[in-house]
Write a structure and sequence with these properties.
28% of the residues are buried. This protein has helices at 20-34, 51-61, 76-86, 106-115, 132-148, 165-172, 181-188, 211-225, 228-258, 266-299, 330-337, and strands spanning 7-13, 38-44, 65-69, 91-94, 119-127, 157-164, 192-199. Helix 1 links the parallel strand 1 (7-13) and strand 2. The chain has 2 domains: 7-210 and 301-337, Spore Coat Polysaccharide Biosynthesis Protein SpsA, Chain A (Alpha-Beta Complex); 228-299. By secondary structure, it is α/β, with parallel strands linked by helices. Helix content is 49%, strand content 14%. It has a 7-stranded mixed sheet, with helices on both faces. The structure holds uridine-5'-diphosphate (UDP) and magnesium ion (MG).
Length: 340
């Protein structure tokens, strides 16, 4: 027998003192309803208010509450990462502490997991109590990310999700510094599905994602999961070159028909300038491609993720980071729980 919980709830906390007690109560009510062992991992991301004291009090009275206390504010995505690192459940649920993601949706995520899905993300079908500006920028953000990234990151989906242990293990081996958790979960693969929910207004306190942080976040998503910014150069370069040729032809024709002084002496200079710029952009694009490759190597993501194998007792010659246990069935989990 072991005392590993079935469910790990991961909640990042940054100045949420007004909400924490209510958050804990609602999570507890929901999780007790599921009737299986669970843990609540709260990460204190350098809160400046009384959040830590409240978390410690909760941990004191309930041993299922576990606290990871950061030395300073490292940011939401890093806090969630620490939570995944410390979670030991068969399924890991990421949820915000401000109750915008209602804990009551967790049983729906769990139901899908029991059906055999490895990642169940919660899709915001409606958002309440957020400004017009936040709604529009968020909508644009999700569509942009969907269009230009190389992995299919579902739209209108935040970090609120459930992932199977094997997906959590893949994430634990992705140590990139600029983290975009939802992209990373999509990247991991396995069977993924969504469940709709209404995103509530914040119960108290205010958003810790001002415009500045949102732009940074969007940039992490774009640079972490696409080479789009580097590829823009080739389009600009080709565009300029084509333009230079067209202008060249037009000027030549006009000079032949209207006389050699048409446009004065400017035209040749401008056309040459456009051609030169096109050349420079083209070689910058090439340099960019090399940088992209250096970036790939330094990021050191696993090359691939194995979901299952046949007729192998072990995983010979396979890096630990790529060694993901075969798809666990409910029965195999039960068996390992009973110590077999
Ligand atoms: N959060 C965090 N560190 C930060 C910013 C936010 O741990 O630097 C936590 C915050 O306490 C909340 C969650 O991340 O539980 C989501 O943040 P927030 O509600 O401010 O974002 P929004 O919902 O407005 O996008
Ligand atoms: Mg929020």
């Amino acid at each position: 027998m072991n005392n590993r919980p079935t469910f790990s709830i991961v909640a990042p906390v940054y100045d949420e003192e007004e909400i924490l007690p209510a958050f804990y109560e609602r999570v507890r009510a929901v999780m007790e309803g599921l009737g299986q062992p669970w843990e609540l991992i709260m990460i204190n991301d350098g809160s400046r208010d009384g959040s830590l004291a409240i978390m410690e009090r909760l941990a004191e009275s309930d041993s299922r509450v576990r606290v990871v206390n950061f030395a300073r504010n490292f940011g939401h995505q890093v806090a969630v990462t620490a939570g995944i690192d410390h979670a030991s459940g068969d399924a890991v649920v990421l949820i915000d502490t401000d109750l915008q993601d209602p804990p009551e949706v967790i049983p729906e995520l769990v139901a899908k997991w029991r059906e055999g899905y490895d990642v169940v993300y919660a899709v915001r079908t409606q958002r309440e109590g957020e400004s017009w500006f936040k709604l529009t920028t968020a909508k644009l953000f999700y569509r942009l990310i969907y269009r230009i990234t190389d992995v299919n990151i579902p739209v209108d989906t935040g970090d609120f999700r459930l992932m199977d242990r094997k997906v959590a293990d893949v994430l634990r081996h992705m140590r990139e510094h600029n983290r975009f958790i939802r992209g990373m979960t999509s990247w991991a693969g396995f069977k993924q599905t969504g469940v709709g929910y209404v995103r509530r207004a914040r119960v108290a306190g205010e958003t810790k994602y001002p415009l500045r942080k949102m732009i940074r976040f969007a940039w992490d998503a774009v640079t972490g999961f696409s080479y789009f910014p580097l590829q823009v150069m080739i389009y600009l370069s080709l565009g300029l070159a084509v333009l230079a040729v067209i202008v060249g032809i037009v000027v030549a024709v006009l000079r032949l028909t209207q006389g050699p002084d048409f446009f004065g002496g400017q035209a040749t200079t401008i056309i040459l300038l456009m051609l030169l710029s096109a050349f420079q952009l083209f070689f910058l694009f090439i340099v960019g491609q090399y940088i992209a490759r250096i970036y790939d190597e330094t990021r050191d993501r696993p090359l691939y993720v194995v979901a299952s194998t046949r007729n192998f007792d072990e995983f010979p010659n396979v890096e630990r980071s790529q060694r993901v246990p075969p798809i666990a069935t409910r029965e195999s989990v039960e068996r390992s729980r009973n110590g077999q």
